[in-house]
């Protein structure tokens, strides 16, 4: 097929025998990790069946990855989640995938958090206690609604650890771009950015950035490189050359 994914599968699989492969975060973790393995690619018919099943059309770069590189496995953080061919036992697809992706809900979430009811603002009577509990229940239910809708129109493609994930926008104006799922910290959906390089990051740029860095780490002599995790909290301070994508507030 040619294009952006030419030779990428071979580059990834070659790292399985690299001298310093264990230095790459997510490759090995207490006997687990992606180990630079990739699932087999999918056929055009299989990808189309998955898209029909999920009610979406994958962005071209991600679609090409499934067809030319693999249906999951080695990749940023702990690797890419698998995309399984549709079979008779495949469960129904979650309905949120085809809904509009609305990252502006993150701003709404932040504004909503500023209105959290505080107990000190209520009186000490039983009636005031009941009013506080009622108001807080209403506020908390709305926060849960906002958090739940932030991932609509996205595909969760990888796990960063500590409850953080990476999303690929499937619908709306941001279709094809990468997002940090920071709902574990009640921060919402934040765009992936490369430090020092403003602008949105597409799936191919995100994956190839990881691969280039992994090749540099894995091929250095072990004595010159130590394992370098990509902690979520440290992403804002990474260098443009070696750092992983960083969330943009």
From TrEMBL:
Residues 42-178 form the Knr4/Smi1-like domain. InterPro entries: Knr4/Smi1-like_dom (IPR018958), Knr4/Smi1-like_sf (IPR037883). It holds the Pfam family SMI1_KNR4. Residues 219-232 have a biased composition (Low complexity). Residues 217-249 are annotated as: Disordered. This is SMI1/KNR4 family protein. It comes from Streptomyces huasconensis.
